[in-house]
Amino acid sequence: MFADLNLTVPKTWDELLAVSEKIKEAGKTPFYYSGKDTWTLQTIPHFGFSQDIVQSGKSFPDFWQDMNTNKKHYAELTNFIDTIKKSKDLIDKGYVNKSYLSDTYDSAQQAIADGTAAMHVNGTWFIGEIIKKFPDKVNDIGAFPFPLTGDNYVNISPPGSLSVTTSAKDVELAKRAVDFIASAQAQQIFAEAQPGIYLNKKVEVALSPAIADLNAALKDGKGILHWQGNGELYPYGSFDKFMQDYYAGGKTAEQVAQALDQETAKNAKAKDDPNWK
Fold first, then answer.
1. Local structure of residue 160 (DSSP, 8 states)
2. I need a surface site. Which of 61, 90, 124, 163 has the fewest CB within 10 A?
3. What angle do CA 105, 108, 111 make, to 5 degrees?
4. What number of other Cβ atoms are within 10 A of residue 82's Cβ?
5. How far apart are alpha carbons 156 and 46 in whole angstroms?
6. What does the pLDDT look like over 187-241, one tens digit per residue?
7. What is the rounded CA–CA span in Å between residue 38 and residue 40?
C-alpha cells in the first residue's frame, strides 16, 4: 500500500500522522487494532518504554535495578505514558478500524494481507502467520520500527532456553535431544517452517521483506531488549486489560501506569521485599 500511494516510511510521530492521513484519504484503514485479543493492545506502548530506557542513559540491567528496588516507577516513565496516549490519538483521529475492541488477531492478518489496512503493530510472528495463511502476500509486506522521535528502536524478545534436570529419567538421552534441537540441522528445519533471524550462522534462510527490514535496523544498532519478561522482578498485573480499560474510558494513561506500580508493590510486599516497606 505504501508503494501504491507513493508513501515513504515515517521516522517521526508527525510523519506517521501525515502518512496515516493520506492512507485514510485513499479510503483505507491506516492502523488495524485487534482488541478482542487483548494482548495485542500492549504493543505500541512498548516503544515508548524503550525510549525511557534509552533516554535514562543506563544499561538495561541498571535501569531495571532501579525499577526492582522501588527507586523508579512505571508512573514516572514519561515516554511510556505518552505513547499510551498516542495509541489512543490514532483512534481519535479516525486512523483505526472502528470495531477495534471486538476485532481479532486473525482478522488483523486478513486485513493486512488483503490490503484493506496498511499497518498493524506486532512481532515477527505476525509475518509467520502471513507466510502460513497468505503466502502470496508475503512479499508485499514490509516493516519498520514504530516511529516516535526519529531515533527509533526494534524491540527484541530473546529466545527461550532448554535445560535438563538431574532427576530426568534418562539424563544422557535428554542431553542428546537438547543437542539436536540446538544443532544447525534442527535449526534449519525451524527456519524453513518459520523464516526469521537465526543466530546460527550455518542456518540458511531467505528473509521475507518485512524481516529483512527489521534485520537492517538491528544491524544499524537500533535494537533493544523487550522490557516485558526480561527486566521486572515482580508481576505488574494485566497490562493488556489495563489498556483495554483505558480505551473503554475506565482509566487514564497515567492510571494505567499507576496500576502497574500498584500491582508491583502488592507482589513485592507479599514477598516481604524490604525495598517496599
1. -
2. 163
3. 160
4. 18
5. 11
6. 999 888 888 888 888 999 999 999 999 999 999 999 999 999 999 999 999 999 9
7. 5
